[in-house]
Design goal:
The chain is α/β, with parallel strands linked by helices. 53% of the residues lie in helices and 11% in strands. The protein contains ten helices and five strands; from the N terminus they run E-H-E-H-H-H-H-E-H-E-H-H-H-E-H. It has helices at residues 23-32, 40-47, 53-62, 75-84, 86-110, 123-126, 143-154, 158-166, 171-177, 191-206; strands spanning 12-17, 36-39, 116-119, 135-140, 180-183. The chain has a five-stranded parallel beta sheet, with helices on both faces. Helix 2 packs across helix 5. It is globular.
Amino acid sequence: MPPAPSASRHFVVALTGGAASGKSAVARRFESLGVRVYDADTAAREVVARGEPALAEIEFVFGADALNADGTLNRRALRERVFADSGARRKLEAIVHPRVRAWLRRRVGMDRGAYCMLAIPLLAETWPEYAWADRVLLVDVPEALQIERLIRRDGLSHDEAMRMLGAQATRAQRRALADDVIVNDGDESALDAQVAALHARYLELASKP
């Protein structure tokens, strides 16, 4: 695999947060202000699309069961496998994560806005690979509210929601990385003012040499 292009001097904000924290709602508000948001989840889907080298490598490492009959990635089977086996998860991450980082770096290099954002749910888990970002913006929410939202949004049981959160970085680990924090513990409309204030701040920071 060719090395990733070097990071641009373009001003970059890494957006992160735990499951059901409201990252997507925050990202939409920045996009409405003209900021491009490049999503690591989108990158992860694209780099394992049919015909991509990563898909062939996944098949080689995990076997034919990792693919559907049509040659696409069997996401459910692979997710169940790596969820139960940390060694398998590390192997999958070694295939996918470098390609996701390269995908995001290319988008940053092509961006022509005042600044851009990278939406990276697993930022704390993959730090310092993204230390080239200029700022880290955390969407923060109390764990009890995360669990409530996961149950309502995804139809999970309380135990399933707890296991999902347990597989992610802790709230304290994410807060330790953050330069800026949006608290999303109320009505979604409360995000508007927080996003507007940060947008003004990021425009100011991006304009500096």
